[in-house]
Each structure stands twice: as C-alpha cells, then as structure tokens.
Amino acid sequence: MLDTGLTRPAAARSFTARRRARLSDMDAAGRVRLDAVARFLQDAAIDDVEETGWGLPEHLWFVRRIRVDVVSPLLHDREAEIVTWCSGVAAIAAGRRWSVLGDAGGRVEIDSVWIHLGPDQRPVRIGDFGPYAASAAGRSVSTKLVLPDPHGAAPRQPWAVRSTDLDAHGHVNNAVYWQAVEDWLTRERWDFAVPSRAELDYRDPLDLGDEVELAAFAAGAEQRCLAFTVGDRVRAVASIEPLRS
User: Fold this and answer.
1) Domain count, the chain
2) 0.70 cut: is pTM over it?
C-alpha cells in the first residue's frame, strides 16, 4: 500500500536536491516528461542513501511500485526542488516519498515502495531503519501489486530493448519504462495539461534480448493501462487516470 500522507514529522530526516530541466527532458510543448521526472527522483534517492550509508554495496534497493500524482504539470518549469524522505517501513521493504516543486508553479507528489536486497541481490530483513525511522512514523508499507493484467484481446506491439536502456545491474532502468508510457500517451493524445495520477508496478526485470510487447487496455471508465509483456508473462504494468482532488 502506498502512503497517502504528504507530510512528515518536522524533526525527521529529509533530503533536498535541485535539478535543472534540460532540452532532452522536455516534450515538444516544453513539459518536463515523466521519464525525466523519474530520473530526477532516482538521482535524489541515490544521493540520499549515499549520504546516510544506506546505499551500495551493503544495501541495494529495487522499486516495486510507484505512484506519480501530477498535481500541476511541469510545463514552464526549468528548475525543480526535490525533497525526499522515508514514508513507511516493512520487514524487507521501505516506502519513499518525493515532493517536486517547479520554479514556475509545477508540482508533482510521488510515493513508492522499494524492496531491500543485500550484496548478493537477495531480499534481506531491514530491522533497524536508522536515520529513516523517524520520518516513517510507524507507517507500514506493502509490496502487494494492484494494477491488473491485460485481457486477451488487448492489442500488442513490439517494444525493443536497447543496450543503452540497461543500468549497472544489467536490467532495464526504471526511468526507461516511463519513456514507453510517454510515447504511448502521446500517440493516444492524452491531455498532459490535466492533473493526472500515473502508476507503475514492477513485477520482474526486463533484460537485453527479451522480446517485449506492449499491451494497451482499459481498466474501468477512466483508467488506461499499458502492460510490458514477454511471452505470456507480464513484467510490468503502468496506468494513468485523471487525478481526483
């Protein structure tokens, strides 16, 4: 379960970073794309755990689930402040929130759940959350995935995995999935000016050589989904819908 609270205890640890939006981060209208936001978040999280010592090589974190609430699109924003903190805890997982505020009024609120792995890339119990315990404030998180599978009639199209999509762990980087989502939404003429909620469930990694197909389908009246499939296995599912106030 993702945390719905936007606040953290005043004395708890948070990490703040600033990022400039460059030409390669923007679409044709000048909006900072979702994949660019994902890179900003990833960089801030890495900087945070490196500062606390909760990063490599002893701690490895893989995103399980993420929710991105675009409260106000980053349309004219060229610099963003990113504040991140721990939003919840579990035996082998932790929640991480980010609040992104643009210099022209854009705002994006993000929550996520990450699986904790040891140096051997196997799940490891966390126990003491150290500097992150206070901001979690006793909230729990769940690693359960909630987005649906595509139905059999969902149209599919190939999606090529490039060598440049892989990260240091040999899997397709988290932000690359959002590139596919952005391309799909643009072709579907999604109105990016409308506040929206985008979600992504990561089930199993994608690797170079996987023959990936994208399956687009609807889930309810307003929720639209995109599944990343390899054969009969669903590796990840993304969704988008209007953001409810």
Assistant:
1) 2
2) yes
